[in-house]
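Board notes (copied after class):
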Amino acid sequence: MRLKWIPLIVLLILSIFLTGCSQEKEMGTLTVGVIVPETGLFSPAGKAMKNAAYLAEEHIKKYGISEFEVKIVVADGGSTPEQAKSAFMELAKQADIIVGAYSSDQSVVCAEAAKDTGKIYIASVASTSQLEKAVREGNRFVFRNAYNTSYWGVLAGEFLELSGARKYYFVGYDPLRTFNQGMLKSFEGKTNAVKIGEVYYRSTRASPNDYAIKAEEVARTADSETAVILGDPGATAIQFVKTYRKAGGEGLVYSVGGVLALPKTLMTIKVNHIAFQSAALENTEKTRFTGAYFEDYREKYGEEANNYAGILTYDAVLIAAQAWRGDTESTIQALESEEFEGAAGIYRFNSEHQALWGSEKLRGIIAEYFDGKIEILYPEEFKTSDAVWP
């Protein structure tokens, strides 16, 4: 009689085992949602961000940096706050952590959505101080691994000092005026260089030739002792510097990054004495992920890797994978108290959930292009040259 029960017992044990495996598999997965501008004004950066996120997914598995199986899900955030919020809410249905978005106004609505949905949000590009303000006011779900506006200004100020510029002219990009003015404010009056002008050119969609008008205007004022601080990370910046030099513009041009921080672009346009900042460069081996990011990106996508929006989105995914503890609250506690390895350095977050850029383990890079070479000016441990003026 007892033999009749054996098949039932075996089935029961098997059922319990399979149920346990199913639950284990569910708990062992981390889904990271990535908001990128696949369409709209910032779409060139969107491609780099998307590619970098998928590369991070591969590297997490390759380097074994998470006990969870990490899955990337991408949504188009466009170029408006409304589009970014829509993307966030869609991702929130399936993602455990959400990273990305491009502009500051987009990141602000994503921060609000993070609080409403209870999803952790890591801003990988936007610099607005509104994110830190949100954390101070109780939004514990928001973190930023990108620079804040102050650090952009710190790097610009650092450049002015190490270059020995006596004067500077600030050239901003009107669609990013808030960011530009915040950056300017953080170093204005704190450098020995004297500001001799400030101007903003409009998007080519709003005025196709405005950048050329402004470039000629700046060239008439700036001289060989003037550094032009260029706050446009987009493609129009290339046309600006070409027009500026053609109009007789002298001195160094310092770009906040973007397309003028891509060595391949600089080698192509061949406009000397452009200095720029980036989160990392291929020959600045900050961690084991620095070289891997640049080398594997090139092999996987057949082009050079983006060294700001791309690399910081890559790092945001890596941070999410290293921090995830299986639930939101434990993960927030980990983000608030631990260190995380990325391609741009070692991240820690302060009480306002801002990555500690400027710390010993996490600093931006300032470099200069001239005579077909990229020379690193800052920080000291990676320095290959002093600033070279025309």
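Comment from the instructor: The chain is about 45% helix and 20% strand. Residues 21-25 have pLDDT under 50 and may be disordered.
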